Amino acid sequence: xxxxxxxxxxxxxxxxxxxxxxxxxxxxxxxxxxxxxxxxxxxxxxxxxxxxxxxxxxxxxxxxxxxxxxxxxxxxxxxxxxxxxxxxxxxxxxxx
Length: 96
Prior knowledge:
Elements: H1 2-23, H2 27-37, H3 43-54, H4 58-68, H5 72-77, H6 79-95
Helix pairs in contact: 2-4
């Protein structure tokens, strides 16, 4: 029975691995979240690092970041960062 269970588990694990791979962030998405999770000495340093390190314009960076805030994959990858960004966004909406 142990061998049969392992074979079934292997098939399930393969399917779960496929679903997990599909649910992973791309390298660029993970990098955007990593940049947002860092602290920066000033606004100019962050924008410069975005251009040089990620090869993105700051506008494109913030577009990607905004989309990631609503992505469950991003929440699973960096819950602290995503939840902090969501709180900030909600506070800004409440002020309007």
